[in-house]
Write a structure and sequence with these properties.
Two copies of one chain form a homodimer.
Chain A (H helix, E strand, L loop, with lengths): L3 E8 L10 H16 L8 E5 L3 H5 L4 H8 L7 E5 L4 H15 L5 E7 L6 H9 L14 H16 L3 H15 L13 H6 L2 E3 L2 E2 L9 E9 L11 E10 L14 H14 L8 E3 L5 H10 L8 H6 L10 E2 L4 H5 L3 H17 L12 E8 L4 E9 L2
Parallel strand pairs in A: 2-3, 2-4, 9-10, 9-11
Antiparallel strand pairs in A: 1-7, 1-8, 4-7, 5-6, 8-12, 11-12
Helix pairs in contact in A: 4-13, 7-10
Chain lengths: 387, 387
């Protein structure tokens, strides 16, 4: 398989984008990535779109063809990839395989979700489809409820506290404040989180990522061609994905996401690195407890030790490891299909030294961790600065 | 890239499967394909699921993880691929790329659609998402309406008649009658088609494929490993895909599907064959006019000459070329995400000589043609009998 590099990235402002349609968001991110790569729409020879629920949220399926049409690509193979909240990370990996295989040479991976055209309750019901409709949703549980179960068990087994979970949100809002693309630009305190409305005990409103609109795009080429497009190609040195039961209750352990552990192990092995080599990571903090589990599943901390470390500031900007410098899903926002691609865009900026106002010093190796459902899917990608 | 072979296939009965859930259909097709390949669920190392509208039709997204869970695969990378009615063909091609690249060794491509849990009107609205929501559906047109426009123009430009279109349905029902998996087992006459209820002038009820439930599955491996699993491996000698505008009105010509012409040309070139080398083809007859256009787009007939040839019986079983021996979408049924995989399953059976009661003599090369929306996506795959 060929070595693959990212040579262009683009992002929209995340948030409640009542000013923009699905097509508008696609244009905003897609064109930015063309400009960044110094390419035109006619240069792209395949398109992978990450999107979860356009059918339910906008009554538009066939979003692969829609994006190819909106960006006026040249009749290229285009498709939508769906894996709930890991749709973006999955699209990234499929685009990577397409280039690595030799099948395509200049591939776009674009993530998109337009979520605010429906009510919050309709969006929440739509997102519920990431879990098991028959054996979870029909019994009345929502996604905050599933993660609340994981949080309670993590608290029980490891002594994790609500204040430690709150510290994840505080850190991620602080990072988002420095990111012009973020949904939220609001510094919050642990006290703010603790006093926010209870959603699913022990998760409060500020423990939950928001419902956002947004799109993110990147362009991959064979590493041998990368210097034609950029002085700082970013190499994909590992890309792995794993699955687990759809229903949370069928798992061995709900204080950890097994699919993420498996994917991380494979990605580290491909990239020939160990967790401590990672300088900067974007992880899937759909709820604050999810970031704590991610730190442990990715091997950054031993089981039961991440919550205290986060609370102590070890994962803040330029800490022991800088986590969710974009603001994460919590602060930057979570347009689900776009999230996995946005994570990679942020890592590209960090590795290039272009993360204005939130740059991690000497970032050489970055990682993205994107989870679908309550952990039924996980994708881990490892990026490094090219030579 | 590695040469890839299909070593196992499985299919459910298509139809109004009120007896079976989404999960039940997946099991039925998936287990049949394991048995056919002499593999167990633990042998599979990646899963590609073709599905269009599970979110709207069953409130279940994340169908990649659901299928991996239902078939008890081993935490493998699993994902859903969506391209409207070409979701199955697209999943096939992505699975092919995954094996050809060297990324995965034993890959399942499974198509599934459960459509009858909602009303026909809700299903029709859901299918409308294959077109342009803002610029077609919101203006009131349905999918039969879009294909009716194509039919009218084809009649105007080439003198195609309603009786010639009807002959497609008559042929495909005759083939379906010989296929135990088909939705319909009912011989019909041209007169029956002509007298059936008008849906969108000139398309009548019997010009339209039905709303069906069903699933289809196949397993691919590197061709070098194929003999471990089967005496008659089927080689994928060409696989290509193309896109076009989402909206029909933006096309240069609506009497032909440009994406299909582009995909066919690439697939023939990869396979180093010409159209006349194809013995058996499964084409996308969502409406009878679509099969006529397919015959022309695939180069089997010159533009404007296919309708008469079909009417004259040239594409019947063991005719000049045998088309839609399964019964096609019209006779075998059209569970949209399953269709593209079912087409490949039928071709595998034909090339192996296992198409009981509807076998094409000396079938050596077969083709599948799967279209999404009104032609915004097309996938063409070419299969041949291995040595």
């Amino acid at each position: 398989m060929r070595k693959v590099a990212i040579v262009g990235v683009g992002l929209t402002k995340f948030g409640e984008r009542y000013d923009a349609s699905l097509r508008n968001l696609v244009s905003e991110a897609g064109i930015a990535s063309f400009q960044d790569a110094g390419m035109s729409n006619k240069d792209i020879d395949a398109l992978y779109v990450g999107n979860m629920a356009s059918g339910r949220l906008t009554e538009q399926e066939h979003v692969g063809a829609l994006v190819a049409d909106e960006l006026a690509l040249s009749n290229v193979p285009a498709l939508k990839v769906e894996n709930a909240c890991a749709s973006g990370g999955t699209a990234f990996r499929q685009a990577y395989i397409a280039v690595a295989s030799g099948m395509h040479d200049r591939v776009m991976a674009l993530g998109i979700e337009k979520m605010t055209d429906v009510s919050t309750s309709e969006a929440t019901t739509g997102l519920g489809g990431a879990g098991d409709k028959s054996w979870e949703l029909d019994d009345g549980i929502t996604f905050p409820g599933l993660y609340a179960l994981m949080a309670r068990r993590h608290m029980h087994d490891y002594g994790t506290t609500e204040e430690q979970m709150a510290s994840v949100a505080v850190k991620n809002h602080a990072n988002a404040y420095k990111n012009k693309y973020a949904h939220f630009h609001k510094i919050i305190s642990i006290d703010d989180v603790m006093k926010s409305k209870m959603i699913a005990d022990p998760l409060k409103l500020y423990d939950c990522s928001p419902i956002s609109d947004g799109s993110a795009s990147l362009i991959m080429v064979p590493a041998d061609d990368a210097k034609k497009y950029t002085d700082t190609p970013i190499i994909i040195s590992g890309s792995a994905q794993a699955s687990d039961t759809l229903r949370l209750a069928d798992r061995d352990d709900i204080t950890s996401i097994k699919a993420a552990r498996i994917a991380a192990e494979k990605a580290y092995s491909q990239a020939r690195i160990k967790p401590s080599d990672v300088n900067v990571a974007e992880v899937h903090d759909c709820f604050t407890i999810a970031e704590i589990m991610a730190m442990e599943d990715l091997g950054f901390y031993k089981k039961g030790e991440a919550a205290k470390a986060i609370f102590d500031g070890e994962t803040g900007l330029n800490g022991r490891i800088s986590v969710n410098t974009s603001g994460g899903l919590k602060g930057c926002g979570h347009p689900v299909g776009a999230t996995g691609i946005k994570q990679a865009v942020e890592i590209v900026w960090q590795l290039r030294g272009e993360a204005e106002g939130r740059q991690v010093s000497n970032a050489m190796i970055g990682l993205t961790h994107n989870v679908g459902g309550s952990g039924s899917t996980a994708v881990v990608n490892i990026l490094k600065r090219g030579d």
